[in-house]
Structures are given as structure tokens and as C-alpha cells.
Structure prediction request, 410 residues.
Amino acid sequence: MQHRSCRFCGTTLTKTFADLGMTPLSNSFIAANETNRMEPFYPLHAYVCSKCRLVQLEEFQSPTEIFSDYLYFSSFSASWLEHASTYADQMSEKFNLGSQSLIVEVASNDGYLLQFFQKRDIPVLGIEPAANVAKVAIDRGIPTKILFFGVTSAKALKREGFRPDIIAANNVLAHVPDINDFVGGFAILLPEEGVVTVEFPHVLRLIIENQFDTIYHEHFSYLSLHVVQRIFAHHGLRVFDVEELPTHGGSLRVYACHSGSKHSNTDAVAEILQQEVSAGLESDVIYERFAQQVVDTKLSLLEFLLSAKRSGKKVVGYGAPAKGNTLLNYCGVGPELLEFTVDRSPHKQGMLLPGTRIPIRAPEAIIHAKPDFVLILPWNLRDEIVDQMKIVRSWGGKFVVPIPRISVIE
Prediction:
């Protein structure tokens, strides 16, 4: 039997959180001229540590292999850009940022966030390991270093004289296999009174809303406030504030500083910690129950698609997100049930979804096909997508979301 250890505390992992079978990497899209190419499939099996309660996957491919050439560009979501703009406004006011300040964003992608600080004449630095994505930011005039963040790179940045007032890390903490090295980098680069803000999908919302499709190989960890507090404390950092966010199905924004910093703890920290205890995140039952929810959702989606197919109805998809690839591969849905999907990103159009080989087209393909149902794969953006594609209703088409359970949007 293979020995699996917790990536934070080293405890042997024995408790299953969700076993989604064998799937390809969720962002490893296939070029249309490579339809006969073999794909590697890996176990998508999430465990929960019985000691520290970190929900996690095993590492089958290194971050270098996964993220060096990446097809996720943050700027193609209007709602995410709005979220980023609001963050820049809030941080600028909350921490009195100005032209003498410095914002460093880890996993800065295509500059989607830092552009809003630049518009306020606040100096910025992006850190992004995916060279193809970083180039987009650099071409837009956003200073960006192409590297993986951790203890070694943090020391190098500190030697270069970078002293960030704010280190922002949105939806990246879950993507790092060596979480101790990553958070250790924060502790090194952060000045004495600096602040780290980290956003991540809240594992409590994942469980309550049955968001099992947000489990994929690029997400090594699934985090609660308790777990993040423990990891940060291990590296001399203190969580002093937290906000609940609607993004990605329900996220937390954690504010952390050095343990001896002047920043005072807010009541929100204790409140969220109590929510987690009351929900049972510190015990086993809630994790065991989740596994059955996953199976029930698979059956419901297949029943809907099979019924539509047998009734002569046409179903297509909207979006090509990582979560959609987890869902479709786990449920065994191919082009025979979902003819194609569409995506606004030109980088994905013309490609095939990994594993299922469902074609990805431009959004206009929906207008030409006039399907009976549009399955929204990035269900966290359902309102934005329904508004963008409201023409679907003109021919009687309807929108469907698969999570937390299959439902038709009336």
C-alpha cells in the first residue's frame, strides 16, 4: 500500500473525502489535430487529514509541468474583473495606499488585478510562473517576474529590495503542493507591519453546496479557516481578519500579518472558526457524508442528459472551466450527450476538453445550434452567463446548472 502523508503536518492519510476516479489534468486541453493522442489519467482522490483536517490530493505532476504553459486567463470573466477592481478600492482605502506603497501579487496571471492599482498610481509587481500568461501582463505594462513563489524566491526578492505593503494571493494557496514552502515565503518577504491577503474557496461551502467539481489535480488543497490559521501560525503569521466572499461558490479572504504586528484581531475570525466547529469540520462525520452526495449528483446529471437525449432534445455546454472537466470526466459525459461547449477565451476555442474530447467553440455557436438546453459548467458565473446569453430564451432554450444538484433555471 502506498504511503500518503499530509502535506502540512506529515500525518499518514487514510480517510477519503471524495474519490472521483481516474481523470486527466483538468486544464490539459487537446488540440483539434491531436484527437488520436493518448492522455495521461491520474487518480482524483481527495483525503482529509485526521490530525490537522487539511483536505488534499496526492501530487502526480509537479507545478512546473502543470502551470508553465497555462490556458486560464483571468481577464475573460467580467465578474472577476469587477471583483478585482473592488479589491483594489478596498485595500487602497483600508491601508491608506499611495504612490509610496508597493503591491505584490503572487500568481498575478495576466495582470487582471494589478492593473487597478496601477490606475491609482500605486507601484505593483506581479509574480507568475506561467510564461505565456505572464507575457500578456508584461505586454500591458505590468511589471511581472516569471517564477514560482516560495522561500527561495522570497529571499531573492527581499535581497532585490522589494518591501510590499500588501502581498495578495488570490486562488493560489490551493494550487501549491508544498504549502509550507509557499507560506514560508510570505513570512520572509513581508515587512514587519505588512499584510498578506489570501483568497481561497472555503471547504465548508464546498461541502454544503456539494461543489465536488472544484476538486481537480491543479488544486492540491481544500481549505478551512482553521487549517489556514494553523499553517500560518506555524510560520509565525497571525490571521487577524477574515471576510466571506461569494466568489467561486463561496470563498474566504484572510488577512494575515507577523505574529507581533500591531494589527488587531477582529471578531470575524472567531465567528468563522465557530461556524466551522458547529458544522463539524473538526470531526469525521461531515467528510464521510460528503462522499455519498457526490454519487447522488452524478446519477442526477446522467438521468437528465439521458432523458433529454432520448426525447430528441439538444444539450450543449457553456464554458470550459477546470470544474467542468472534473464533472464531465467523473460522470462519463462525452459528445454523445453534450454535443459541444463554448468559451469566451480564444485560447480554448478550437480545442477539445481533456478526457471527454468535447469540442470547444466560440459562444456564437450556441446561436447557430439553437439548443434546447445550455448546461452552465462554470455555475459560479451563472448570473453573468444567463445575462450574456439571454438570446437563448428567444427560441425557448433553457439554462441548466449541475451544482449543487441538477436544476433548470426558469
